[in-house]
Amino acid sequence: ALEQAVTRFNKQVYKLERGLEPNKVVPKLRESLNLWREFYPVVQNLRNPDLKDRHWTKLIDVMGEYLDRGDSLTLEALLNIKIIDRKDTVMLISTEATQEASLEAMLDKINEKWRHTELTINNYKELKDTYILGGVDEVLMVLEDCMVAVATISSSRFVSGIRHEVEKTENALKLFSDTMDEWLECQRQWLYLETIFNAQDIQKQLPAEHKAFIFVDRQFKDIMRRAKDRPNAMLAATAPGVLEAFKRCNETLETVQKNLEDYLETKRVSFPRFYFLSNDELLEILSQTRNVQAVQPHLQKCFDGIRYLDFGDDPKSISIYAMVSGEGERVPLGSSLKARGAVEIWLTQVESNMRSSIKAAARQGVKSYPTMRRTDWVQENPAQLVIVVSNIFWCKSVEECLSAPGPINSLTTLLGDLVNALRDLITLVRGRLSSLLRKSLGALITVDVHNRDIVESLIHSKVSKASEFGWQMQLRYEYDTEAEQVAILQVNARFNYGWEYLGAQPRLVVTPMTDRCYMTLTGALHMRLGGAPAGPAGTGKTETTKDLGKALGIQCVVFNCGENLDFRFMGKFFSGLAQCGAWACFDEFNRIDIEVLSVVAQQLLAIQNALKSGLERFLFEAREIRLISTCGVFITMNPGYAGRTELPDNLKALFRPM
Length: 658
Hints:
Blueprint: H1 2-19, H2 25-46, H3 53-63, H4 75-80, H5 87-115, E1 121-123, E2 131-133, H6 137-154, H7 163-197, H8 200-205, H9 207-229, H10 233-237, H11 242-270, H12 279-286, H13 299-302, E3 308-310, E4 322-324, E5 330-332, H14 343-368, H15 374-377, H16 383-403, H17 407-429, H18 435-460, H19 469-472, E6 476-480, E7 485-490, E8 493-496, H20 512-526, E9 530-532, H21 541-552, E10 556-560, H22 567-580, E11 583-587, H23 594-612, E12 617-620, E13 623-626, E14 632-635, H24 649-652, E15 655-657
Parallel strand pairs: 9-15, 10-11, 11-14
Antiparallel strand pairs: 1-2, 3-4, 4-5, 6-7, 7-8, 12-13
Helix pairs in contact: 1-2, 2-5, 3-5, 5-6, 6-7, 7-9, 7-11, 9-11, 14-16, 16-17, 16-18, 17-18, 22-23
């Protein structure tokens, strides 16, 4: 009404100013109207519905005059206290009230949103009164949006009037965020450990850790039941004591998990091939110690050639009769081997019997080779020993030729014998054979063809002495009858055969490039270094390394590297290699982060220094471990590819490039 009156009078005065002759009344009327025009915004600001008691108190303090918000506050009263002189202050306080009201509306919207946000609680494994959090993505998205909104409110210059309410909401959101972090971490650890400690074998082996887990289990289930009854997210997560309870649970679970890791480490130290299994795979074995068959699915990761162990027809049998390869080859393990006691103990016995059985079969093979037709002999012996024993007698024949009066003529005669032997094998292969024997003969023919090519090369190069490089550069096999050991020589390097059971695996076709790779790698091993084949993808870097391992009878574990590897994992892997004397071929090694590679260099240096010193035990990452001298580390790299790291100089020095 005041605004309309002022507007109406303004129009009338305007008409009077234009229609009347100049006089003293109209200017006075204009002056009086201008006063009201200035007064009107002040009144409008005072009528702001967002003005709260705190704003009126502030206004009274500024004015120095008491203002009653009731009916007694009239225009006359406002004019009497000359409020128009403080119009800027009134406008400032009114604007502040409006902005605060806007911030309060945002705050109310946040609080309203949380009144309707609930947690998804799911049943766990159909167990009674056991629940877990379902998907929390939507809840965390709401949390993120609200924290951004509260940060916006807090950064406003008009927040002072509602700071207490803002801080209350902000603290609630922080508490909710902290609780959810601890809650999700607790659930993650609980889900992992719950399955483990449900196994009675683990409960018996880790009684203290099981007791600690039961305490956490009760607390976690109790909180989850309360959340199920009251699923409002904010109320469930900010209830008194919930955050502290989850923190205590997480501390306990971390201790349990650390002790579990230590327990697994003791098992791995007892049987180092367990280092090649993940924690979950190892726990699956340990949680079923009374079920000896539980180890079967994981044998291929522990042994190069064993697909499964033959326990006989009785499913409850603990007698181990033989090892069976992926190709179906069966090799007896002796009559007294039992899967009794701790799994790592009897698996160690399996490993020992594997080597002694292969060694005994080699002794028998060497003894029977000269007395039988070769085509009959190859069908009576394990596939890997067919190749090893054949190589022993081939090397013996070549050296006899080189020490004969006419070495070239002798080699020419030997070449004819080798060609005839190959023809016999080809005739045999063309017949009806089992799948296993066909694979065995395929690998033997591959090696025999290479041996024939070597003899042709010796004749072509006119090599007449066993000491000449043309012969010294080849992989040469010698059998020591007294020690019952096969020695493998190349140039100045000498290795004992590893007696790892390989089954009837195929062998790589050997080219002149392969021969040079073998020389580089055996030279590196002789100097206690690693080997580093480099080249484009698909050129045979890994296969060449694996084939050399087969030639030396050593387990070779292939591992594909990625950016997610850390130095702890690498340290454990190296520890396993050192303790079981195996080889590892790390594919695409230069994909590992440069920070990790720097630590890896120190880990490898410790192993190589111990090998050079001829130690049987050495200190590795603050722990003394066993060292078997046959261990070796090889890396393959694809230079120039995107995402590949340049190896540090101290790491390059530990490998012989190729």
